[in-house]
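Below is a filled-in request sheet from our internal design queue. Each sheet records the structural input a requester submitted and the sequence that came back. We keep these sheets so that new team members can see what a complete request looks like end to end.

REQUESTER: design group, bay 2
PRIORITY: normal
MODE: inverse folding
CHAIN LENGTH: 533
BACKBONE (tokenized):
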């Protein structure tokens, strides 16, 4: 073992053995909430997850999955997959993109950085194009940050601005886009009064243009490219509430103003890479391109960015691989990067190809997931089961997307079907762990399917002007369950009761303990203790 390996060496846990295969299951969008008809997890038949709850409080508890517990600006911020999986994998709470951008805008440091200076070179003779999600959801971007950026560029010599908006109905209520567009139009009108030619240039729904992820469907990015870069869109209007198409040409600057990585990597590649074969770009303008953040630390993509991303280093995945833990990670395309890229601190690729295997099951594309709510849950369950039974791996890690992906469609009946499918996949994995004498840890990254209605302050469903309930398509602020068990779990292991505010970042140390190691000292504390039995 070389000196670098020595730095990675984890101390042996004084009480817990090594060598037990561990299944780490993340149910995406699976929070804990009161049981009513809008709680699809409650409505669905979920015997496996229900049976785990009976282990409370020793082997089942809740953990925080939103707000400051996962590095978001405030406790009013719902959790999301990026921050959730970052926390799960890294075992520490990092100030996340949303917060870092807030700080950089507040202090003005954003304008002193290399990224801003780079795009600023285009201000005198070119157009600045801003591309991103227009909402106040706070998951991928925030309208108030865009507004501050517009103000900032207007004070720093920009002459022409074109905003390419992606509308949201996923992190915010369906139909709320009109209000965000009006706000933006007002701001742009004010800039025009100051002599800056500022307009909305193109628009489209986020799931239809640009914001695909993990290469599920490059057509989504192509449709965005056609409108934003080539200026060719199927519908042309004069203004956004009326939309004027403005192509991106040589000499222009482009900023993708989303801070979250997964749904920006594909467009970043298309804007940045000279060699690119994912679709025919027709033209590849010579532009100055910067991301709000650098989206992929391993690929260094994009090379220019306005705000430095959180430095999520020394993740549990990297430690465990250095300590010989053979790791299998699997999900279907739409969540594959969650248990690999996000888990590993927004880093693509393997730490050690000899010890790791990442399996991606192709997702259905071109449909909304309420049409096939079972998604690939059983296929993920089967792959995990086979990996467990093969005895080739020490950690088998999966993400089951159903509660989240179907929850986002707002289709309550389909979400119930989705939750049942996820529960069945959990059973397959737990059964395999039973067979090999292993351990399981089942948790979730944030809430979604457990509450599908917008509520007033008292918690009752909020009614709109026509007296109808408003379906909630977004994530929630709810805590998520975590359960441990399996024949390999040492008899005296139980959840401690002195970490009541525990959150997702406490899970990594817990998993390291279950592998027989003590977590590094700066990790958030473990959730478990071992009592003599
Ligand atoms: O990108 C998305 O699908 C949503 O905005 C957030 O969902 P996720 O955080 O569960 O991926
Ligand atoms: Mn998620
Ligand atoms: Mn989601």
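RETURNED SEQUENCE:
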């Amino acid at each position: 073992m070389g000196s670098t390996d020595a730095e990675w060496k984890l101390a042996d846990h004084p009480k817990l053995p090594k060598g037990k295969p561990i299944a780490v299951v993340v149910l995406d969008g699976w929070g804990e909430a009161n049981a009513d008809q809008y709680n699809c997890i409650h409505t669905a038949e979920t015997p496996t997850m229900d049976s785990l709850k009976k282990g409370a409080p020793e082997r089942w508890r809740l953990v925080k999955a939103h707000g400051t517990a996962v590095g978001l600006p405030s406790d009013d911020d719902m959790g999301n997959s990026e921050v959730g999986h970052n926390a799960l994998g890294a075992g520490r709470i990092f100030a996340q993109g949303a917060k870092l951008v807030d700080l950089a805008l507040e202090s003005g440091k954003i304008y002193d950085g290399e990224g801003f200076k780079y795009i600023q070179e285009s201000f005198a003779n070119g157009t600045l194009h801003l591309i991103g999600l227009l909402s106040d959801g706070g998951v991928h971007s925030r309208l108030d940050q865009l507004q501050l950026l517009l103000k900032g560029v207007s004070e720093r010599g920009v002459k022409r601005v074109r905003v390419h908006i992606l509308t949201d109905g996923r992190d915010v209520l369906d139909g709320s886009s009109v209000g965000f567009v009006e706000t933006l139009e007002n701001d742009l009108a004010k800039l025009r009064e100051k002599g800056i030619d500022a307009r909305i240039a193109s628009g489209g729904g986020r799931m239809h243009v640009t914001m695909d992820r993990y290469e599920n469907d490059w057509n989504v990015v192509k449709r965005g490219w056609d409108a934003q870069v080539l200026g060719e869109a199927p519908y042309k209007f004069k203004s956004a509430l009326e939309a004027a198409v403005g192509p991106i040409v040589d000499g222009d600057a482009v900023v993708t103003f989303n801070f979250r990585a997964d749904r920006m990597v594909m467009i970043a590649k298309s804007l940045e890479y000279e060699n690119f074969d994912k679709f025919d770009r027709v033209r590849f303008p010579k532009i100055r391109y910067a991301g709000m953040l650098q989206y992929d630390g391993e690929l260094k993509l994009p090379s220019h960015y306005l705000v430095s991303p959180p430095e999520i280093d020394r993740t549990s995945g990297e430690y465990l691989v250095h300590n010989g833990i053979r790791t299998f990670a699997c999900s279907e395309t739409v969540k594959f990067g969650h248990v690999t890229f996000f888990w590993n601190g927004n880093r693509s690729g393997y730490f050690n190809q000899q010890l790791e295997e990442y399996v991606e099951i192709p997702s259905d594309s071109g449909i909304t997931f309420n049409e096939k709510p079972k998604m690939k849950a059983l296929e993920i369950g089967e792959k995990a089961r086979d990996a467990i039974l093969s005895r080739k791996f020490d950690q088998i890690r999966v993400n089951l997307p159903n509660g989240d992906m179907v929850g986002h469609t707002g289709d309550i009946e389909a979400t119930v079907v989705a939750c049942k499918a996820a529960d069945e996949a959990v059973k397959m994995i737990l059964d395999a762990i039973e067979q090999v004498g292993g351990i399981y840890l089942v948790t979730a990254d944030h809430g979604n399917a457990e509450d599908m209605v917008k509520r007033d302050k008292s918690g009752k469903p909020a009614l709109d002007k026509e007296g109808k309930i408003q379906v909630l398509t977004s994530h929630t602020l709810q805590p998520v369950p975590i359960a441990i068990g399996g024949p390999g779990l040492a008899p005296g292991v139980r959840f401690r009761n002195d970490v009541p505010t525990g959150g997702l970042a406490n899970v990594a140390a817990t998993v390291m303990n279950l592998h027989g190691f003590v977590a590094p000292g700066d990790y958030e504390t473990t959730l478990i203790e071992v009592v003599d039995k």
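SHEET NOTES:
- Residues 26-96+312-530 form a domain with the Alkaline Phosphatase, subunit A fold (CATH 3.40.720.10).
- The chain has two domains: 26-96+312-530, 98-307.
FILED BY: M.R.
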